[in-house]
Amino acid sequence: MKKVAIMTSGGDAPGMNACLRAAVRGAVYHGVEIYGIYRGYDGMIEGDIVKMDSHSVSNIIQKGGTILKSARSEEFKTKEGRKKAYNELQKLGIEGLITIGGDGTFTGAKIFYDEYGIPTVGAPGTIDNDLFGTDYTIGFDTAVNTALGAIDKIRDTADSHNRLFFIEVMGRDSGYIAIRSGIGGGAELVMVPETSTSIKEVISTLQEGWARHKTSSIVVVAEGDEEGNAMEIAEKVKKQISQKDIKVSILGHIQRGGSPSAQDRILASRLGLGALEGLMKGEKNVMAGIINDKLVYTSFEDSITKNKPLNQELIHMVKVLSV
Ligand code: F6P
Description:
This protein is of the alpha/beta class. The chain has two domains: 183 residues, Rossmann fold (3-Layer(aba) Sandwich); 114 residues, Rossmann fold (3-Layer(aba) Sandwich). 43% of the residues lie in helices and 18% in strands. It has a seven-stranded mixed sheet, sandwiched between helices. A four-stranded parallel sheet has the order 7-8-6-9, with helices on both faces. Strand 10 and strand 11 form a beta hairpin. The model has no long low-confidence stretch (mean pLDDT 97). 6-O-phosphono-beta-D-fructofuranose (F6P) binds next to loops.
């Protein structure tokens, strides 16, 4: 394999740049030509593709976001869009692809591989940590630390005013950020899409805490919780305990930015190089991941369809540690 292309796609994640850098430097080291595709699949369709070298990725390991930019492409979901994308890659003689992104990115990559057979290896880049086939995804650790920093600050003011806060963190379908930042921030309760916690249970847990003379209370809510988002949950709780001063804080996209943590830079570097070297060794239609500190490849199919369950021990721990 002598010519490959690389892109970042879907929601950005801190560490995507470090991943890109590792793949590009790996390609240079192995004498493979590498092209960067701007704006994910949209850029592939439009031929927004440039040749990269070692200098193209200088001084980016510490930067959040993605220098290649990212997009959630609607056009790539169509047959015509994918045909255009294939033609653009053909013009440059691209023989392999590296896609850095999450489940949407890999769903697209799988369909594209099935239709055109260009060998593709993915690197899991999403703050959600919701991909099967890797213990952690690129950006997750940084996002948890960002959320934790915010929770600590909210705890200060919650404590001063004896308030109850509902803090919403990201995670459309997954509670990974919520559970980790909740444990780290000493939350009284964590609400995640993977387990159901009724409003009745929320109220009784909080009231038990107040009976034990707890002053401030923090409930961390994953945005995809089945009871609704933090605002909706707070409204439901307010209706039943009107005497308590209740506030809501939505952390939002601050969780997606910022300089990647040491853990994310190293993970991203391993996965970027792992994706490139995997491609060179003949891996295709797979995602590179790290499980138990070992580099592994999992089919796109499994990475997007298989469930990566939340650790039940962590869910139990929230209950025990908030007494
Ligand atoms: O998939 C990552 C993620 O940050 C989710 O946690 C969140 O629901 C979604 O992306 C938000 O996407 P967008 O930035 O496109 O609104």
